[in-house]
Write a structure and sequence with these properties.
two-stranded antiparallel sheet
């Protein structure tokens, strides 16, 4: 029996952070269920063929995605001691897939080699203290805006994953990008599962029931399994079949046959391939885009989650922040080296934090579950998005509630803060929100005649983001597609 004052308790500072072993374990499970979808989604994103016609293979990508996420999350818990879980980063993996699909000179090993190089550069920036210095240079008001932005982002992810909010097809001829349900209507049993889970989770949280978020996920999953096995609803998207608007958004609750994990993709990356096939300038530009994305996505996510967990000290510092950033940089190196794209801290870790997780013990639980998932994929396929989405919406509310801490009377903070937290969900990117906020902060302080108040590193970061946003015109000018 693990007790307060034990060696494990002291190592993870469980009691010191106001938590206990049961909360950490529940939090670890909640985070796993909230982000386990990546094991199914990542193979779908990375399923395109490269210039040689080769594909990575669905089973191999799924197995390695779970394996790498498990190892890195355990390292985060054991070394950095924070309840942050890692897995293949959405956004980076999509960029990688699109680049491979649209560039006839690239192969999968070439592209994954660029991810590795970006990770190595990131690790150097961490070890030299540059990345930590950038974190400390960000004003408190913008750090709060990052928390709010991630709260809105994570809530939008939940609503979209549940099919409650859907993208309106371009053929609709409207400037409105998203709408309620399908064609303005809520349809299908999966939507009912989401609504049931949201109402239940809110009720449990309001009543301060222990394990509220995890209970909501489990109860919604049970309802989803019953509905699927009795009504045979099926997924929204299925190969060779028309779109089913009333189906599950991605994972239809099913049991699948056991299969040994295929880890053959590990070690296939080629760090110099892109330079040989594309040339130095084009390959460097691609690596720069990847680097900036993973650099600031992780920083923003880390700030938001640490604030929600209450582990930020009175000076705005995160304990062992260097270790967190080291593991995050390692995530890009290992993820690229294993051909599943850069791994980074997941905003869905907020589900575990909302459950009460405050230490790295929760991350170890999550990591172990990912390793188990390599062998028991039915565990992953059993939990649909609609069962997890309510937890993300509730956690989003908890994070957005910090908006009152922003000084709205100071426009030099208020306007950048607004751009930061509005563009994160609207562009589906943490990095985009950070970039707009940082640039606006530097410009407005200059307009106010307070340029000296801006930390020198903020000028450097703003300049880097200007280059980041200008990548499109630069590529066009250089003839890079």
């Amino acid at each position: 029996m693990l007790k307060q004052g034990s060696a494990l308790d002291r190592y993870f500072k469980i009691s010191e952070r106001g938590s206990n072993f049961s909360r950490e374990i529940r939090g670890g499970f909640a985070t796993f269920f909230a982000m386990s979808y990546i094991v199914v989604l990542n193979p779908l994103i990375l399923s395109v063929a490269d210039s040689s016609g080769a594909t990575l293979g669905f089973p191999a990508v799924a197995a390695v995605t779970a394996f790498v996420a498990g190892i890195l999350t355990i390292l985060m818990g054991a070394w950095a001691k924070h309840p942050f879980a890692l897995a293949t980063g959405l956004g980076v993996n999509a960029f990688v897939a699109v680049t491979v699909a649209t560039n006839p000179g690239l192969t999968w090993p070439d592209m994954m080699g660029l991810v590795v190089l970006s990770g190595v550069t990131m690790l150097i920036l961490v070890l030299t203290g540059f990345r930590t210095a950038v974190f400390k240079a960000v004003p408190d008001g913008l750090k709060t805006a990052i928390v709010v932005g991630i709260g809105l982002f994570i809530a939008l992810i939940g609503l979209v994953n549940a099919g409650f909010v859907r993208r309106i097809p371009d053929a609709a001829g409207t400037t409105v990008p998203v709408g309620l349900g399908f064609d303005g209507k809520l349809l299908g049993w999966p939507t009912l599962v989401f609504v049931f889970g949201l109402i239940l989770t809110i009720a449990l949280v309001v009543r301060k029931v222990r394990g509220a978020i995890l209970i909501g996920i489990v109860a919604s999953t049970v309802l989803a399994v019953i509905l699927e096995f009795t009504l045979h609803i099926g997924p929204s998207f299925s190969p060779g079949k028309p779109f089913n608007p009333q189906g599950w958004s991605l994972v239809a609750p099913t049991f699948t046959e056991w299969a040994a994990p295929d880890l053959s993709l590990i070690g296939k990356a080629n760090p110099i391939g892109a330079f040989e096939h594309l040339g130095f300038v084009a390959a460097t530009l691609l690596a720069f885009v990847i680097l900036l994305s993973i650099f600031f996505d992780a920083m923003g996510t880390m700030v938001g989650l640490a604030n929600e967990a209450g582990t930020v000290d009175k000076d705005g510092n995160i304990p062992d922040v260097d270790r967190v950033l080291q593991i995050d940089a390692l995530g890009a190196i290992v993820g690229g080296g294993a051909s599943v794209s850069s791994n980074q801290i997941y905003v869905e870790s907020g589900a575990g934090i909302g459950e009460g997780a405050r230490t790295g013990l929760a991350s170890i639980v999550t990591g172990l579950l990912f390793l188990v998932a390599m062998f028991f994929t039915p565990l992953i396929n059993l939990v649909p998005f609609e069962a997890v989405a309510p937890a993300l919406v509730v956690v989003g509310f908890l994070m957005v509630s910090q908006v009152g801490k922003i000084d709205w009377q100071d426009w030099g903070i208020g306007i950048p803060a607004f751009l930061t937290f509005s563009l994160m969900p609207f562009t589906y990117s943490i990095a985009n929100g950070l970039g707009a906020g940082f640039i606006a902060y530097v410009l407005i302080r200059t307009f106010q005649g307070r340029a000296r108040d801006v930390h020198p590193l903020m000028w450097a970061v703003a300049a880097a983001f200007l280059l980041f946003f200008a990548v499109g015109p630069i590529e066009q000018a250089l003839g890079i597609h």
